[in-house]
Design a protein that fits this description.
Rossmann fold, binds flavin mononucleotide
Length: about 200
C-alpha cells in the first residue's frame, strides 16, 4: 500500500446488477492494493447472475450473498454495517437507488444499507435515458438529502451491450479517479464515524 495515500481499514462494497459489473475485478484489485486493508463484498442476486461470486472472491476477503440460513454462521446486516469504515455501492443500479431512496430493504445489501450508521457512497451506472428519468433524478436528490454521498458517472465513449457498438455513454470514473473521490470523502465519513462513537448520530 502506498505510504502517502489516505486509506481505510475496512471497506464494504455492495455490488448490484449493472453492466459496469464487468469491470468490477479491476476496481476491486485497485481498491485492495492501494486504498483498503480489508474488503468485504455483498452481491445482490442480479449481480451474482452477471458475475461469478467465485471470481469476486479472488479479489477480497469475503463475498456475501442472499442465502437461505446455513449451519455456518455468516455475518448479518447489522454486523456488516458496523464493521465498515467506508461503505461503497459499486456499481449502483437504478433499482438500488430507488429501493434505498424509498426506505426499502428486501435483501442483504439493502438491509445492510438501512443498518449503516455512516453515509453510504453510491456509484450509479445507468444508461443515458435511465439517468435522465425524473424518477431517477428524484431518487438521487432524496439520497443526498438523507446524507448519502454520490460519485457521479461520466460521459465517455464505451461499448454498449444493447447495440454492440461504441457510443457516448455514462460510465464509472476509472479506478484511479474513483479512489481520488473516495479519498476526498474520507473526512465526511470519519466525522460521521466519530459522531457515532460519541453517540451524536
Ligand atoms: C445484462 C444486464 C445489464 C444491466 N445493466 C444495468 C445497468 O447498467 N444499470 C441498471 O440500473 N440496471 C441494469 N440492468 C437491470 C438490473 O440488473 C435490474 O434492474 C435488477 O433488478 C437490479 O437488481 P439489483 O439492484 O438488486 O442488483 C441490467 C440487466 C441485465 C440483465
Amino acid at each position: 500500500m502506498s505510504e502517502s495515500r489516505a486509506s481505510v481499514d475496512h471497506l464494504l462494497v455492495g455490488v448490484s446488477g449493472s453492466i459496469a459489473i464487468l469491470n468490477l475485478p479491476t476496481y476491486l484489485a485497485a481498491l485492495r492494493a492501494t486504498f483498503a486493508r480489508e474488503v468485504r463484498v455483498i452481491m445482490t442476486a442480479s449481480a451474482a447472475r452477471l458475475l461469478s461470486p467465485s471470481t469476486v472472491a479472488l479479489l477480497c476477503e469475503e463475498v456475501l450473498l442472499d442465502e437461505e440460513p446455513t449451519p455456518q454462521r455468516k455475518p448479518g446486516h447489522v454486523e456488516l454495517a458496523n464493521w465498515a469504515g467506508m461503505f461503497l455501492i459499486l456499481p449502483a443500479s437504478a433499482n438500488i437507488l430507488g429501493q434505498v431512496a424509498n426506505g426499502l430493504a428486501q435483501n442483504l445489501l439493502t438491509t445492510t444499507i438501512m443498518a449503516s450508521p455512516i453515509p453510504v457512497i453510491f456509484c450509479p451506472n445507468l444508461n443515458r435515458t435511465m439517468w435522465s428519468k425524473r424518477a431517477v433524478q428524484r431518487n438521487l436528490r432524496t439520497l443526498a438529502e438523507d446524507g448519502h454521498l454520490m460519485v457521479d458517472p461520466e460521459y465517455a465513449p464505451a461499448y454498449e451491450v444493447g447495440t454492440g457498438e461504441m457510443a457516448d455513454t455514462l460510465i464509472l470514473p476509472d479506478p484511479e479517479a474513483l479512489i481520488r473521490h473516495l479519498e476526498s470523502m474520507l473526512p465526511q465519513i470519519e466525522a460521521a464515524t466519530e459522531g457515532r462513537q460519541r453517540g451524536t448520530l
